[in-house]
């Protein structure tokens, strides 16, 4: 009986870790004070604004896992799309957008 309980516990741990959310998923407060949600969409993670002037607009799509992600990010004010990356560290997300990998702009978002 004890063996069965241990096996059931191990099966639960394995199955729950397989479905654990990626570090980037969730609600984030952007540098401009708006709220963005990052959620799984297909094989990537979509960044969509929830509040502010551009609420409902998808502004990015990234792939990756763990703490590091890469893809594209769009400035909703001018609709320009940049090569982007994101790095999660605790409750902070460092977002970076670059043109030609030389001219870059960074900002830090905070998990809500």
Keywords:
112 residues, alpha+beta, eight-stranded antiparallel barrel, 8 strands, disordered N terminus
Order of H and E elements: HEEEEEEEE
Which stretches of 5+ consecutive residues score pLDDT under 50? 3-19
The CA-CA distance between the termini, in Å, is 43 Å
Main β-sheet, in a few words?
8 strands, antiparallel, barrel
Q: Output the structural class.
A: alpha+beta
Write up this protein.
It is a single chain. The chain has 112 residues and is of the alpha+beta class. It has one helix spanning 2-18, and strands at 26-29, 35-41, 44-49, 58-65, 68-75, 80-89, 92-99, 103-111. The chain is built from 1 helix and 8 strands, in the order αββββββββ. Strands 1-2-3-4-5-6-7-8 form an 8-stranded antiparallel β-barrel. The longest helix has 17 residues, at 2-18. It is globular and about 30 Å long.
Question: Any chance you could write out the topology, listing elements then pairs?
Answer:
Layout: H1 2-18, E1 26-29, E2 35-41, E3 44-49, E4 58-65, E5 68-75, E6 80-89, E7 92-99, E8 103-111
Antiparallel strand pairs: 1-2, 1-8, 2-3, 3-4, 4-5, 5-6, 6-7, 7-8
Short précis:
With 112 residues, this protein is of the alpha+beta class.
């Amino acid at each position: 009986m004890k063996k069965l309980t241990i096996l059931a516990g191990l099966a639960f741990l394995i199955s729950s870790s397989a479905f654990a959310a990626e570090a980037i998923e969730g609600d984030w407060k952007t540098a401009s004070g708006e709220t963005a949600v990052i959620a799984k969409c297909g094989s990537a993670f979509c960044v969509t604004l929830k509040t502010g002037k551009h609420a409902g607009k998808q502004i990015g799509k990234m792939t990756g896992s763990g703490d590091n992600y890469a893809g594209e990010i769009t400035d909703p004010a001018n609709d320009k799309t940049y090569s982007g990356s994101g790095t999660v560290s605790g409750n902070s997300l460092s977002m970076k957008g670059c043109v030609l990998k030389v001219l870059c702009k960074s900002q830090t978002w905070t998990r809500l």
